[in-house]
């Protein structure tokens, strides 16, 4: 991890011409804390966190406990936002977990940071632990919550841990439906889904839409030039073939629910890999160092984005 700490020292001392791109938390997110979250959420005890199961409920309780410990306030008076998934022959109970951190300047404008905590569960003795999908995004968001509570952003932050993402993005869709009064106040969604990868993972990918509604061309350009020890790539490619040919990445995870409302988004992930939706997507098989570095570079970009958001009234109203 020597490379990691050298990068932290370098980025702490860097600056740029608009608002500082390389501004990072004064106390870097602990390496062990990130992995501790990921280890618990992907443990056999939670049996794959399938919506409506005991393991899923344990994940909810863990997330709530971490938010309470970090002194993050509940959203709309409660950390839990329950909803039902109605099917032909049964109804499944689910619940998002949501925290709120008020902005220091723009209390009524919101950045929604999202990560789904559910996965596909167990099939007999086979447990689909979902370490990368998406214990990784959930673990990172839990650590972001601690830093953002200590050092609030200019804009208010909704920390949205969604349930039932694996069931047609139900958690994110319910959040939008349950908070229609806030849709026009949500400036941006930043979604984390699968940011740990495999032992061979070397690149963090991102997809974005409608950023020019809230970021200038210069800001977007500087954002794409982020200094990082890992490679950050726009879009998804695999062996010369665009994965977007077979995957609709703007609808591939919870950011899709925001995209449908015309809300700008950035989605971070590593793309599909051979452990995807397999029992082998385990804590042991993720890339621990890459996961930590990816978490830090995303956190740095969140800070930069928050400092440089702007509101073009005409563009914003065209949503």
Task: Provide an overview of this structure.
This protein is of the alpha/beta class. The chain has a single domain (2-317), classed as 3-Layer(aba) Sandwich (Aminopeptidase). The chain has helices at residues 2-12, 31-41, 54-69, 131-150, 170-178, 217-223, 255-259, 288-308, 313-317, and strands at residues 73-74, 80-86, 91-101, 106-116, 122-123, 126-127, 155-162, 186-192, 203-209, 231-234, 237-238, 241-242, 265-269. Strands 1, 2, 3, 4, 7, 8, 9, 10 and 13 form a 9-stranded mixed sheet that branches. Strands 5-6 form a two-stranded antiparallel sheet. Helix 2 (31-41) crosses helix 4 (131-150) and helix 4 crosses helix 8 (288-308).
Quickly list its features.
M28_fam; 319 residues; disordered N terminus; Aminopeptidase; 9-stranded mixed β-sheet; 33% helix; single chain; two-stranded antiparallel ribbon; 13 strands; disordered C terminus; alpha/beta; Peptidase family M28
């Amino acid at each position: 991890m020597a490379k990691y700490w050298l990068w932290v020292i370098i980025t702490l001392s860097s600056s740029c011409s608009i608002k500082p791109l390389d501004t990072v938390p004064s106390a870097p997110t602990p390496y062990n804390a990130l992995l501790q979250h990921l280890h618990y959420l992907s443990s056999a005890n939670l049996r794959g966190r399938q919506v409506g199961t005991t393991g899923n409920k344990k994940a909810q309780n863990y997330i709530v406990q971490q938010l309470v410990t970090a002194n993050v306030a509940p959203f709309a008076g409660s950390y839990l936002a329950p909803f039902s998934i109605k099917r032909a022959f049964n109804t499944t109970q689910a619940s998002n977990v949501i925290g709120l951190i008020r902005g220091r300047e723009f209390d009524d404008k919101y950045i929604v940071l999202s990560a789904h905590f559910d996965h596909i569960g167990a099939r007999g003795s086979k447990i689909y632990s979902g370490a990368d999908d998406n214990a990784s995004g959930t673990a990172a968001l839990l650590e972001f919550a601690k830093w953002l509570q200590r050092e609030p952003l200019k804009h208010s932050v909704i920390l949205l841990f969604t349930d039932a993402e694996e069931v047609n993005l139900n958690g994110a869709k319910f959040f939008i439906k349950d908070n229609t009064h806030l849709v026009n106040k949500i400036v941006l969604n930043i979604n984390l889904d699968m940011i740990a990868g495999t032992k061979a993972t070397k690149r963090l990918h991102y997809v974005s839409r409608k950023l020019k509604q809230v970021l200038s061309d210069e800001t977007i350009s500087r954002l794409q030039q982020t200094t990082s020890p890992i490679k950050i790539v726009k879009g998804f490619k695999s062996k010369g073939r665009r994965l977007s040919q077979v995957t609709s990445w703007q609808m591939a995870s919870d950011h899709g629910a925001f995209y449908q409302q015309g809300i700008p988004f950035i989605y971070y992930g590593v793309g599909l890999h051979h452990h995807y939706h397999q029992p082998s997507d385990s804590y042991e098989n993720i890339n621990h160092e890459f996961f930590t570095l990816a978490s830090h570079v995303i956190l740095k970009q969140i800070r930069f984005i928050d400092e440089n958001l702007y509101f073009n009234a005409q563009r914003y109203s065209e949503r």
